[in-house]
Amino acid sequence: MTWHAKLLLIQPEQVSNRLEQACHAGWISRAPTLWQMELAVLRMWHRLVFRPETIGTSSTHPVRQSWRAKLLVWRPLRFPFLLAEGAVSPWDMTGLASSTKRLLQHLLAAHHDGLQFVYDLEILSLEPTGLAQLRSQLQEIEGHKKRAEWLGDLCAYEHYHRDLSLGLARFEEDPESMLVSTTDPDLSLRALLRWCLDQPSSPAETWRAWRAGQYHLQHGLRT
What we know:
This protein has 13 helices and 2 strands. By secondary structure, it is mostly helical.
Protein backbone atom coordinates (compact mmCIF):
# COMPACT_ATOMS: atom_id res chain seq x y z
CA MET A 1 0.00 0.00 0.00
CA THR A 2 1.56 3.30 -1.10
CA TRP A 3 1.87 6.33 1.15
CA HIS A 4 -0.15 8.47 -1.26
CA ALA A 5 -3.03 5.94 -1.25
CA LYS A 6 -3.21 6.25 2.54
CA LEU A 7 -2.98 10.04 2.29
CA LEU A 8 -5.70 10.51 -0.34
CA LEU A 9 -8.02 7.58 0.33
CA ILE A 10 -7.64 7.57 4.16
CA GLN A 11 -8.68 3.92 4.45
CA PRO A 12 -7.63 2.23 1.20
CA GLU A 13 -8.72 -1.21 2.46
CA GLN A 14 -12.28 0.03 3.06
CA VAL A 15 -12.31 1.72 -0.35
CA SER A 16 -11.16 -1.55 -1.96
CA ASN A 17 -13.94 -3.45 -0.17
CA ARG A 18 -16.57 -1.04 -1.47
CA LEU A 19 -15.15 -1.32 -4.99
CA GLU A 20 -15.49 -5.09 -4.80
CA GLN A 21 -19.09 -4.65 -3.67
CA ALA A 22 -19.71 -2.43 -6.70
CA CYS A 23 -18.28 -5.16 -8.94
CA HIS A 24 -20.51 -7.79 -7.34
CA ALA A 25 -23.50 -5.48 -7.87
CA GLY A 26 -22.70 -5.44 -11.58
CA TRP A 27 -22.03 -1.71 -11.77
CA ILE A 28 -18.56 -2.17 -13.24
CA SER A 29 -16.77 -5.14 -14.80
CA ARG A 30 -13.62 -4.63 -12.75
CA ALA A 31 -12.51 -2.44 -9.87
CA PRO A 32 -10.47 0.70 -10.60
CA THR A 33 -6.92 0.68 -9.27
CA LEU A 34 -6.27 2.61 -6.11
CA TRP A 35 -4.34 5.14 -8.18
CA GLN A 36 -7.39 5.70 -10.38
CA MET A 37 -9.40 6.31 -7.20
CA GLU A 38 -6.74 8.74 -6.03
CA LEU A 39 -7.24 10.65 -9.28
CA ALA A 40 -10.95 10.79 -8.41
CA VAL A 41 -10.03 12.38 -5.07
CA LEU A 42 -7.85 14.95 -6.83
CA ARG A 43 -10.75 15.67 -9.19
CA MET A 44 -13.00 16.29 -6.18
CA TRP A 45 -10.46 18.65 -4.60
CA HIS A 46 -10.35 20.51 -7.92
CA ARG A 47 -14.15 20.80 -7.78
CA LEU A 48 -14.01 22.09 -4.21
CA VAL A 49 -11.51 24.80 -5.14
CA PHE A 50 -12.69 25.82 -8.59
CA ARG A 51 -16.40 24.93 -8.54
CA PRO A 52 -17.42 25.50 -4.91
CA GLU A 53 -20.85 26.78 -5.96
CA THR A 54 -21.80 23.18 -6.84
CA ILE A 55 -21.45 22.01 -3.22
CA GLY A 56 -23.84 22.79 -0.36
CA THR A 57 -25.93 25.33 -2.25
CA SER A 58 -29.36 25.16 -3.90
CA SER A 59 -30.40 26.25 -7.36
CA THR A 60 -34.01 25.19 -6.87
CA HIS A 61 -35.18 26.12 -3.35
CA PRO A 62 -35.01 29.32 -1.28
CA VAL A 63 -33.29 29.62 2.07
CA ARG A 64 -35.50 28.70 5.02
CA GLN A 65 -36.99 31.66 6.82
CA SER A 66 -35.58 30.90 10.28
CA TRP A 67 -32.75 33.03 11.64
CA ARG A 68 -30.53 29.97 12.02
CA ALA A 69 -30.92 28.98 8.38
CA LYS A 70 -30.20 32.53 7.26
CA LEU A 71 -26.93 32.38 9.18
CA LEU A 72 -26.03 28.81 8.27
CA VAL A 73 -26.52 29.36 4.56
CA TRP A 74 -23.03 30.87 4.80
CA ARG A 75 -21.04 27.68 4.32
CA PRO A 76 -17.95 28.52 6.43
CA LEU A 77 -20.28 29.03 9.41
CA ARG A 78 -22.16 25.82 8.62
CA PHE A 79 -19.04 23.68 8.44
CA PRO A 80 -18.18 23.36 12.17
CA PHE A 81 -21.78 22.37 12.94
CA LEU A 82 -21.62 19.71 10.23
CA LEU A 83 -18.43 18.41 11.81
CA ALA A 84 -20.10 18.33 15.23
CA GLU A 85 -23.01 16.34 13.77
CA GLY A 86 -20.61 13.85 12.21
CA ALA A 87 -22.10 14.76 8.84
CA VAL A 88 -18.86 15.42 6.99
CA SER A 89 -15.53 13.68 6.81
CA PRO A 90 -13.36 16.26 5.05
CA TRP A 91 -10.58 13.88 4.07
CA ASP A 92 -12.82 11.10 2.74
CA MET A 93 -13.61 12.81 -0.54
CA THR A 94 -15.19 9.79 -2.26
CA GLY A 95 -17.33 8.68 0.68
CA LEU A 96 -16.16 5.11 0.11
CA ALA A 97 -14.16 5.02 3.33
CA SER A 98 -17.08 6.25 5.45
CA SER A 99 -19.11 4.02 7.73
CA THR A 100 -22.84 3.54 7.22
CA LYS A 101 -23.46 5.73 10.26
CA ARG A 102 -21.37 8.55 8.77
CA LEU A 103 -23.17 8.29 5.42
CA LEU A 104 -26.55 8.46 7.15
CA GLN A 105 -25.54 11.57 9.09
CA HIS A 106 -24.15 13.10 5.92
CA LEU A 107 -27.42 12.63 4.05
CA LEU A 108 -29.55 13.88 6.94
CA ALA A 109 -27.56 16.98 7.87
CA ALA A 110 -25.66 18.13 4.76
CA HIS A 111 -27.58 19.77 1.94
CA HIS A 112 -27.51 18.09 -1.48
CA ASP A 113 -28.88 20.07 -4.39
CA GLY A 114 -31.25 18.41 -6.83
CA LEU A 115 -30.29 14.76 -7.24
CA GLN A 116 -26.82 15.05 -5.74
CA PHE A 117 -27.89 12.72 -2.92
CA VAL A 118 -28.12 9.85 -5.44
CA TYR A 119 -24.33 9.38 -5.16
CA ASP A 120 -24.63 8.62 -1.43
CA LEU A 121 -27.75 6.51 -1.89
CA GLU A 122 -25.71 4.33 -4.25
CA ILE A 123 -23.06 3.79 -1.58
CA LEU A 124 -25.70 3.01 1.04
CA SER A 125 -27.36 0.54 -1.31
CA LEU A 126 -24.19 -1.57 -1.20
CA GLU A 127 -24.92 -2.24 2.49
CA PRO A 128 -27.71 -4.78 3.20
CA THR A 129 -29.74 -2.45 5.45
CA GLY A 130 -28.34 0.95 4.44
CA LEU A 131 -31.40 2.31 2.65
CA ALA A 132 -33.78 0.90 5.27
CA GLN A 133 -31.82 2.65 8.02
CA LEU A 134 -32.07 5.95 6.15
CA ARG A 135 -35.81 5.54 5.71
CA SER A 136 -36.20 4.77 9.43
CA GLN A 137 -34.16 7.81 10.49
CA LEU A 138 -36.12 10.11 8.19
CA GLN A 139 -39.31 8.85 9.84
CA GLU A 140 -37.83 9.44 13.29
CA ILE A 141 -36.94 13.01 12.37
CA GLU A 142 -40.55 13.66 11.35
CA GLY A 143 -41.63 12.67 14.87
CA HIS A 144 -39.20 15.01 16.66
CA LYS A 145 -40.03 18.61 15.86
CA LYS A 146 -36.96 20.23 17.44
CA ARG A 147 -34.60 17.80 15.75
CA ALA A 148 -36.39 18.24 12.44
CA GLU A 149 -36.17 22.04 12.71
CA TRP A 150 -32.48 21.94 13.57
CA LEU A 151 -31.55 19.61 10.73
CA GLY A 152 -33.72 21.62 8.36
CA ASP A 153 -31.90 24.80 9.36
CA LEU A 154 -28.51 23.08 9.12
CA CYS A 155 -29.34 22.10 5.54
CA ALA A 156 -30.35 25.77 5.13
CA TYR A 157 -32.70 25.39 2.15
CA GLU A 158 -36.42 24.60 2.05
CA HIS A 159 -37.81 21.12 1.47
CA TYR A 160 -34.53 19.21 1.64
CA HIS A 161 -35.76 16.33 3.81
CA ARG A 162 -39.01 16.10 1.86
CA ASP A 163 -37.05 15.80 -1.38
CA LEU A 164 -34.68 13.26 0.19
CA SER A 165 -37.62 11.11 1.36
CA LEU A 166 -39.23 11.21 -2.08
CA GLY A 167 -35.89 10.52 -3.74
CA LEU A 168 -35.21 7.57 -1.45
CA ALA A 169 -38.62 6.03 -2.23
CA ARG A 170 -38.01 6.46 -5.94
CA PHE A 171 -34.50 5.04 -5.68
CA GLU A 172 -35.72 1.97 -3.77
CA GLU A 173 -38.43 1.36 -6.36
CA ASP A 174 -36.35 1.95 -9.49
CA PRO A 175 -32.68 2.96 -9.02
CA GLU A 176 -32.09 3.28 -12.77
CA SER A 177 -34.72 6.00 -13.06
CA MET A 178 -32.69 8.16 -10.67
CA LEU A 179 -29.47 7.86 -12.65
CA VAL A 180 -30.42 10.61 -15.06
CA SER A 181 -26.84 11.82 -15.38
CA THR A 182 -24.93 8.58 -15.38
CA THR A 183 -22.10 10.25 -17.30
CA ASP A 184 -21.61 12.95 -14.63
CA PRO A 185 -19.15 11.86 -11.92
CA ASP A 186 -20.43 14.68 -9.70
CA LEU A 187 -23.86 13.08 -9.45
CA SER A 188 -23.42 9.32 -9.61
CA LEU A 189 -21.01 6.90 -7.97
CA ARG A 190 -21.36 4.55 -10.93
CA ALA A 191 -20.40 7.38 -13.27
CA LEU A 192 -17.39 8.20 -11.09
CA LEU A 193 -16.23 4.59 -11.16
CA ARG A 194 -16.54 4.46 -14.94
CA TRP A 195 -14.62 7.74 -15.13
CA CYS A 196 -11.89 6.19 -12.96
CA LEU A 197 -11.59 3.17 -15.24
CA ASP A 198 -10.86 5.51 -18.17
CA GLN A 199 -7.96 7.17 -16.33
CA PRO A 200 -4.24 6.26 -16.28
CA SER A 201 -3.67 3.29 -14.00
CA SER A 202 -0.38 4.49 -12.48
CA PRO A 203 1.42 7.70 -11.50
CA ALA A 204 3.93 7.19 -14.34
CA GLU A 205 1.16 6.94 -16.95
CA THR A 206 -0.53 10.03 -15.51
CA TRP A 207 2.72 12.00 -15.62
CA ARG A 208 3.27 11.08 -19.26
CA ALA A 209 -0.31 12.02 -20.19
CA TRP A 210 -0.03 15.34 -18.35
CA ARG A 211 3.30 16.14 -20.04
CA ALA A 212 1.68 15.42 -23.41
CA GLY A 213 -1.26 17.74 -22.62
CA GLN A 214 -3.68 14.84 -22.49
CA TYR A 215 -4.66 14.97 -18.84
CA HIS A 216 -6.65 17.50 -16.77
CA LEU A 217 -7.76 17.12 -13.15
CA GLN A 218 -11.41 17.87 -13.86
CA HIS A 219 -11.90 16.24 -17.25
CA GLY A 220 -9.43 13.40 -16.88
CA LEU A 221 -7.68 11.69 -19.74
CA ARG A 222 -8.22 13.24 -23.15
CA THR A 223 -7.85 10.86 -26.03
